[in-house]
Amino acid sequence: MDPRPPLERQAKNAVDAYNASHKNQVKLEILPNDDVEGKVGGAIQTDTLPDILAGDVVRIPYWVQQGVFTDVTAQIDALDTDNLQKGHIDAGTIDGKKHTLPFVTDISVMVWNKDLYTEAGLDPEKGPTTVDEFLTQAKAVAGLNKSGVAGSYLAGQSGGALVFTLFPMLWASGQEVLNEDGTQANLATDEAKQVFDAYNQLAKLPNGLGAGSKEETGATWTAPFQEGNIGVMQYPYTAVTGLFDTVDFEIGVAGIPGLEGNQSTFLGGDALGISKSSKNVAQAWNFMHWLMSDEAQQEVFADNNDTASNLSVLENGYADADPRTLIANATIKDGRAPVAVNFNEAFNAAGSNWQLLVQDAVWADGSQIDSLNEQITATLGG
């Protein structure tokens, strides 16, 4: 089994728990984070893929199209899929054939610094429930005029961080960011432009967006909040849980709101499938089937304060968890994972038209939004 380095801890927990209770054994090997595509591509050419392969959920559709995974439609259909988060299953489905299950679910949430909220005269127990409230609260923190402190933060040069943070605002506003087959972008709608305008207002405001937001490549995009310098922003929940007991300020957590309320989240993380090279399909499926069970999801994920993919465990398996974990878990039912074969090229690649669109919408006059949306569609294959 080969996962990515950012999820090594969760992968080790899963493999250790399985191996301790099964005669069938799983060997864990970690893919190099800076060359996942190269290693997978080489293994495809030499037919040496591992039995089980985990990958970033937004890259899964491309891998499925390239024939990386074994078709396990019959096995997945025999599961209680209504009790699983479906984003990672949908990502691995093409022409009705299913190839993947959820492995590690990483979600985006809205976080705020309660101490800064109190200083700004805001209610520290009430985070934003609409985009307008997000804007108002960020402006209030900006108005403190404290050195190094800003209302919010955005990773302006990281396509991956930008979809992780901004797409949920659009989904919560009732918008589809892509068409059903992932070949058309819908990022120039009136609703999308309203969301972008909120950030444009912050970009024009002194201390509205943290220093370096426009140039942020994603390498350090979570650091300003961690250092206590940001009022409110979207954040990966797997990262925020590690801050609860380590920072010297109180953190609030909520779902990411839309224009009129509602909430959503980006169902990120990794999906799991059996490679086309596997000579041990039955044994590999035994591990995947076990991992979907209530017992495994409880032991591997819930008991370690990680996000389970099993909805019944999400609802009932966190009795002793931090209350903020329960709030985060409640967003998963409203979460989405965008599915597009060329997603990486259209959104995550350095200098992508998506990055250019956000740069224009937030730090310029927005005059290029429509044309850049069309160029994103062209990259997607539409």
Task: Explain this structure.
This protein has 382 residues and is α+β, with helices and mostly antiparallel strands. Helices cover 41% and strands 12% of the residues. It has 18 helices and nine strands. It has helices at 8-21, 36-46, 60-65, 73-77, 87-91, 114-119, 131-142, 159-172, 190-204, 223-226, 237-240, 281-291, 294-300, 311-316, 323-330, 343-348, 353-363, 369-380, and strands spanning 52-56, 93-94, 97-98, 100-113, 232-236, 251-254, 256-258, 261-264, 267-274. Strands 1, 4, 5, 6 and 9 form a five-stranded antiparallel beta sheet that branches. The chain has a two-stranded antiparallel ribbon with strand order 2-3. Strand 2 (93-94) and strand 3 form a beta hairpin. Helix 7 (131-142) runs parallel beside helix 9 and helix 9 (190-204) crosses helix 17 (353-363). The longest helix is centred in the middle third of the chain and has 15 residues, at 190-204. It is globular and about 60 Å long. The model has no long low-confidence stretch (mean pLDDT 93).
